[in-house]
Amino acid sequence: MELLLVIAVLSIVSGSFCSYLAKQKNRDAAAWFVLGFLFSIFALIAIAASVQGEKSEAAIPLHIITPEQARRDRRVFWITCLVFGSVTLAFLLRLIAM
Prior knowledge:
- The protein is mostly helical.
- It is elongated.
- The mean pLDDT is 80.
- It has two domains: 1-52; 65-98.
- The chain has four helices and no strands.
- It starts with a helix and ends with a helix.
- Helix content is 76%, strand content 0%.
């Protein structure tokens, strides 16, 4: 029980330190916390060895999609459904015919 508590505390400390280093290097702090929590010393070595990330204010946030992108994505989705649907249907019909 005590060993499990020690491992949990060390994992939280490692995750926190990875998160702090990631924030200093303009990386995703939450993701690095999880990596530090799960992989401790390996994640610490990885974030310490990583280069400084770029801080771009002009980039479009990931959650914003322009109307043109939405239209293109819908077209790609339906074309993919038609292609894979017809391939799957042809495969099933061939299996039934055997």
